[in-house]
């Protein structure tokens, strides 16, 4: 489903003062603490809602193998939901950062409640969450993230981040040893964005497709798998470009519904001569005269030295219209040669589809009272509606291309 930017911004603005905020570990500095959900139409909102500015007010010490208590501020807990706690080696995360989950909570996060709490945005939530840092995480500086998929209310995705230090924390954690330790952990799951494949289901506590080994399930949880597209993990939305997220290198989808690419258009079949204006299409590669209805395809003309195998060669593009033929001279134009006419003119005829002999050196195919004259190949003649050799040897047309006229025993 596609959402308008205006409607999403209005919804977020109306509810931003009533949501949740990470309290400990201490988040990055925000001039005005932003406790609303991720806005997929605002550049820099993902990740962390820091908009690219990462000022450290308090660096939390959190050593490998140590358990730290995570807690929150706010009252709009939306009956809890499911949360993940993740880390990245990037001290200033971006859309390209790789987040690895150290603990997942199914139900009751950030609070075990049936609805919302009292106390407003500054109220401290009683529920606390002990989270253990994996024992093999190397020393260094990391960024911690809390992500939340609420149980009740609009389908939203929340994310707050905090700077942390493991061990001495004297250097950057982006080392080969850190990459090796984090590679065994699952990717952080992203859902409920206008650009995500997965939309969770209200009144359910979402069950992550890959929650990791450290999983806590709330005592009043009502686990559910979510909606369509939630069976496979998504670790990040596409990068932002031009008003909505554009496709990136991550596993997340492009904005809007998935559309199968259209097959390439079929190339046009080349024609022997371009069709004159106003001509209706015909099934063959040969163009029709103007204002003439489509006729069945006839075989193409062979070289001049070969027997004639076609009765409908291409009309020159400059041929005049056959829409007003001359009056017929005979009631049986297929058997009686007509007077030769100038090239390109229309010879009248009455038997549509029949071969018309025009003199002895020209022929045409009767089409709605009009036969366009075509010169015969050298050594050929037209007699009684049949193209023959000058020595009167009949030409046998391939039977696959012959059609019996209704009420007649003669093939044409």
From TrEMBL:
- Stretches of Low complexity bias are at 241-257, 306-340
Q: What class of enzyme is it?
A: oxidoreductase
Q: Which GO terms describe its cellular component?
A: extracellular region
Name of this protein: AA9 family lytic polysaccharide monooxygenase
Q: Which UniProt keywords apply?
A: Carbohydrate metabolism, Cellulose degradation, Disulfide bond, Monooxygenase, Oxidoreductase, Polysaccharide degradation, Secreted, Signal
Species? Cucurbitaria berberidis CBS 394.84
Q: A Pfam family for this UniProt protein?
A: AA9
Q: Spell out the subcellular localization from the entry.
A: Secreted
Region Disordered, residue ranges: 215-341
| Molecular function per GO | cellulase activity; cellulose binding; monooxygenase activity
Residue spans with biased composition (Pro residues)?
260-305
Known EC number(s)? 1.14.99.56
Location (main, coarse): secreted
Q: What is known of its domains?
A: Has a modular structure: an endo-beta-1,4-glucanase catalytic module at the N-terminus, a linker rich in serines and threonines, and a C-terminal carbohydrate-binding module (CBM).
Q: Which InterPro entries match?
A: AA9_LPMO (IPR005103)
Q: Which residues form the Auxiliary Activity family 9 catalytic domain?
A: 31-182
Q: Which residues form the signal peptide?
A: 1-18
Provide the GO biological process annotations: cellulose catabolic process
The UniProt function text for this chain reads: Lytic polysaccharide monooxygenase (LMPO) that depolymerizes crystalline and amorphous polysaccharides via the oxidation of scissile alpha- or beta-(1-4)-glycosidic bonds, yielding C1 and/or C4 oxidation products. Catalysis by LPMOs requires the reduction of the active-site copper from Cu(II) to Cu(I) by a reducing agent and H(2)O(2) or O(2) as a cosubstrate.
Q: Which residues form a coiled coil?
A: none
Q: Which reaction is catalysed here?
A: [(1->4)-beta-D-glucosyl]n+m + reduced acceptor + O2 = 4-dehydro-beta-D-glucosyl-[(1->4)-beta-D-glucosyl]n-1 + [(1->4)-beta-D-glucosyl]m + acceptor + H2O
């Amino acid at each position: 489903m596609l959402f308008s930017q205006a409607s999403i911004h209005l919804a977020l603005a109306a509810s931003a003062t009533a949501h949740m905020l990470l309290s400990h570990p201490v988040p990055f500095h925000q001039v005005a603490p932003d406790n609303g959900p991720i806005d997929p139409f605002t550049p820099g909102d993902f990740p962390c809602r820091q908009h690219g500015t990462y000022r450290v007010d308090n660096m939390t010490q959190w050593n490998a193998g140590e358990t730290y208590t995570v807690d929150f501020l706010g009252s709009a807990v939306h009956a809890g939901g499911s949360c993940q706690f993740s880390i990245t080696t990037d001290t200033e995360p971006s859309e390209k950062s790789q987040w690895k989950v150290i603990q997942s909570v199914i139900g009751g996060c950030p609070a075990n409640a049936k609805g919302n709490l009292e106390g407003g945005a500054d109220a401290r939530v009683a529920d606390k969450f002990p989270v253990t840092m994996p024992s093999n995480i190397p020393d260094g500086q990391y960024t911690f993230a809390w992500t939340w998929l609420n149980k009740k209310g609009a389908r939203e995705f929340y994310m707050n981040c905090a700077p942390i230090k493991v061990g001495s924390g004297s250097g950057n954690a982006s080392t080969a040893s850190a990459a090796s330790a984090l590679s065994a952990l699952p990717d952080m799951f992203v859902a409920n964005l206008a650009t995500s494949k997965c939309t969770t289901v209200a009144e359910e506590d979402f069950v992550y497709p890959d929650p990791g080994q450290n999983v806590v399930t709330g005592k009043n949880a009502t686990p559910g798998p979510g909606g369509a597209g939630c069976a496979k993990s998504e670790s990040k939305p596409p990068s932002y470009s031009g008003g909505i997220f554009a496709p990136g290198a991550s596993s997340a989808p492009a904005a809007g519904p998935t559309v199968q690419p259209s097959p390439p258009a079929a190339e046009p079949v080349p024609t022997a001569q371009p069709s004159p204006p106003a001509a209706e299409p015909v099934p063959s590669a040969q163009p029709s005269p103007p204002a003439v209805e489509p006729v069945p395809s006839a075989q193409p003309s062979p070289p001049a030295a070969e027997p004639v195998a076609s009765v409908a060669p291409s009309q020159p593009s400059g041929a005049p219209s056959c829409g007003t033929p001359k009056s017929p001279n005979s009631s049986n134009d297929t058997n009686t040669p007509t007077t030769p006419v100038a090239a390109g003119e229309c010879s009248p005829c009455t038997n549509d589809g029949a071969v018309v002999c025009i003199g002895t050196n020209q022929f045409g195919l009767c089409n709605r009272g009009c036969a366009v004259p075509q010169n015969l190949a050298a050594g050929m003649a037209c007699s009684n509606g049949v193209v023959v050799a000058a020595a009167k040897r009949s030409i046998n047309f391939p039977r696959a291309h012959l059609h019996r006229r209704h009420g007649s025993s003669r093939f044409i």
